[in-house]
Design brief:
mainly alpha; Formate dehydrogenase/DMSO reductase fold; two-stranded antiparallel sheet; 10 helices
Length: 296
């Protein structure tokens, strides 16, 4: 376990705590639910599911937005980050703008669809805002130069894939609940691609960070061999990857309609749990590079 005393700060590998400990843990949930909600809206809009779009919008607005406002400490003053010049330098401010634009345009799209008809230009704008909402968390962390585990171009890519994968899983769960197997089969095809992308990206991401710097090597070791290895290997790999992969292979062989519903729901839950755990590990295992050189 990596621990530092006050006088050792930045003299050795120093874990970041602001975004994961105490109130900082709220940002972990905020990133997850904001991206899950926006990803669900995008996938559901592609497959024409109004219930899916509504669920995605609510997850992003109530859970993601709620946790984000609580993290800021003074929720009633968040508008200052939106309307000030902070967006020019802060990805948190930009992210709030993306979320607000997505929620506003998404609500307008759902309203127009229910009361008259869907407007293609409005849906395009909404999904662009949803995509920016999904990716912004990765850019917010990537912007921190002192933490090699975050400061890599692969992190925003990983967050996009995981956000869309989670959204596809949640959309599939909604179709299964409605008994719409035809639409479910189409979504499941998208899940296969996104799941393979997620499974491939995790080792590529960790290996690239491992060979970037000594601090990156320490972060990866802390995650996969140190204190947090049970969370990585059991929750992320075994539950978050292996179970969804087993469900995908099973449905590919016997068909989605013949797959046990309990198994499918369990795979969806495990996939979301694995994504949430991986995000926790990325936040928890982010180590600052020491100001004093440390030998390997």
């Amino acid at each position: 376990m990596i621990q530092t005393r006050p006088y050792e700060f930045m003299a050795s590998y120093t874990p970041q705590r602001e975004w994961i400990e105490k109130r900082g843990a709220l940002l972990w949930f905020a990133f997850f639910f904001i991206e899950l909600g926006a990803g669900t809206f995008m996938i559901s809009s592609i497959f024409g599911s109004m219930p899916g779009m509504l669920v995605g919008w609510l997850v992003c607005a109530l859970l993601g937005g709620g946790f984000h406002l609580l993290f800021l400490g003074k929720p009633l003053r968040f508008w200052r980050m939106v309307f000030s010049s902070g967006w020019q330098t802060s990805w948190i401010s930009r992210g709030l703008i993306f979320v607000i634009l997505f929620l506003a345009s998404g609500l307008a799209h759902m309203g127009s669809t229910l009361w008259s008809h869907s407007l293609a230009p409005l849906l395009i704008v909404t999904n662009i805002c949803a995509f920016l909402t999904v990716i912004y968390g990765g850019f917010a962390m990537n912007y921190v130069n002192g933490i090699p585990l975050w400061n890599t171009a692969l992190l925003p890519v990983l967050y996009v894939v995981s956000g869309l994968w989670g959204g596809a899983e949640l959309t599939l769960g909604i179709f299964l609940n409605q008994g719409d197997m035809v639409a479910g089969i189409s979504v499941e095809a998208a899940i296969r691609i996104l799941l393979v992308g997620f499974v491939l990206l995790i080792p590529v991401y960790l290996i690239s960070v491992r060979y970037t710097s000594l601090t990156g090597k320490a972060s990866v070791k802390y995650m996969v061999l140190g204190k947090w290895r049970p969370l990585f290997w059991i929750v992320v790999v075994m539950l978050g990857m292996a179970v969804p992969l087993a469900a995908v292979i099973n449905s590919f062989i016997i068909g989605l309609e013949a797959s046990p519903a309990v198994f499918l729901y369990a795979a969806i839950f495990c996939g979301l749990l694995g994504d949430l755990a991986m995000r926790y590990l990325i936040l928890r295992c982010g180590l600052y590079s020491p100001l004093v050189p440390v030998s390997g």
